[in-house]
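assembly run, all chains below
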Amino acid sequence: MEDLGVGIGWRSEIDLSVERMAGVDFVEVVAENLHTDHLPESLRVLRERGVPVLPHAVSLSLGGAEPLDTQRVEHLAAVARLVDAPLVSDHVCFVRAGGLDSGHLMPLPRTREALDVLVANVKTAQSIVDTPFALENIAALLEWPDAELTEARFLSELVERTDCLLLIDVANLYANARNLGTDPAAMLDELPLERLAYVHVAGGVEVNGVYHDTHAHAVPQEVLDVLGELCARRRPPGVLLERDDLYPTDAELAGELASIRDVLAAHA
Amino acid sequence: MDEPWGLSGEQFLEIYAAAMFAPLMVAAIGALVIRRLADRAEPFDHTNLPTTYHLAYLAGGCARLVETVIAELTHRQLLRINGEGRLSTTGSGTDKPLDPLEQEVLDTVQRKGTPSASIVVTALADGPLLGLDRIQEELLRDRLVVPAAWRMRVRRTVAGLYLAVLTIGLARLIVGISLDRPVGSLLGMLFGVLLLTGGALVAAKGLTQEVLPTRTGRAVIEGATADRPRRLSLDADSAALPAIAAAVGIGGFAAHPDVDVRHALAPPSAPPASSGDSGGSSCSSSSGSSCGGGGSSCGG
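ok done. output:
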């Protein structure tokens, strides 16, 4: 996997800020927010500068039991071609079932049967998309009963069977540790980090004892600590800051990018 | 035969013809007097203005004032502008608004979501702006603007005179019709009164602008214009940056020295065709997040 550096999620609300911010090595775009026939001006400028743009999908519902919506995958593929993306990604989750859209990334039951469904859908998606595919672990507020595999084993087998890459969200590892009692370090020990594409970092907030991975608050030190844990095992090809709402000043965003760089430097 | 109002039709028309032009004369003389008063020059350096907002209001009234507040707040990162010219509050940061005007602009942006800058300008420029009274008073104190009361007095006098002329003419018309007298000439003159009303409005046009700078006020604007930066590079010295508000105060968004921000605030011509995710079935102008939907927790 090529070295991406440190990046930030491109959002239209902060497009000018991202375009002008120093030290942005790559950006990620929500694929569903882009047209397939033209790029927003600031993305065009970034591409002209040679900044990699990575499409990130949120709606493929790859773990869903229903047939894969290939039109959504084709849209992702078209966006990837438009930005000449080195890779694309989505989540290990489902977002639709029974004709309803949850509006959330829902966790999968960690069973062999669910893994088979996920693998089949990922392979179908890979056959449509021309670029490498990365899959991201999500933050869950619940776990389905009767799990047959740990999350790390589930992801490892997914990687083995589909040859996909991993997009590890350390904020999600932290959220799951807070809400479900999982152990991020143990999970990182089990994951095939040699298949790591890049890493997500984001902020959140605790409400009534539950940690919410909001992408709308500052990145807590604990999330950076999990990033440090990961870096101690393997230097990630890239780390991306996700911010989706309540955008702070450019200086604060730049400060969060600097904090990420500090963690990377500490483990260089 | 008794003549209505003791005047024959011919006599009335002669007097009425003179009366028709009286308000026009008043408008012209009023405008002239105000211009003369406004042309009294007194030394005043633009750097002595209390704030850049005074300069903005002097140069372009309320709309320019709001534009300048937006530019200032954007520079101080209390507001963010995106490539489509949409504003949003940053919500954090250590710099806080200094006066009621700035707070009002921030509140308006927050209330309207992510409005375009032009929507904020339109929304605020027509309403009572907090803190505007103080700016107006201080500009008057320094004799930089012609008092609005003078201009209002002339406009009201002209309007009152024309109302009186029209009323008298209509009354005479009714009397004439009731006495079965010929009223064709009077009808023509009433039509002429309407035309002259338009003429008076043109004569008083200089009095209707929102802010009328005095000669001193105009010199202040010219002085500030000579000093403003034309262009700033992205890595401009921070010492030069406060001049941004001055540039916008004089020339509006189109004069913003930062090219990227200027294009976002005041697109050069047609809206950019490739400005991104607005419209379309799969797109949203308030970009979707990487969370995949609503709710308080993202998970993605």
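DSSP finds nine helices and twelve strands in chain A.

Chain A has a mean pLDDT of 96.

not gonna interpret more than that til we talk
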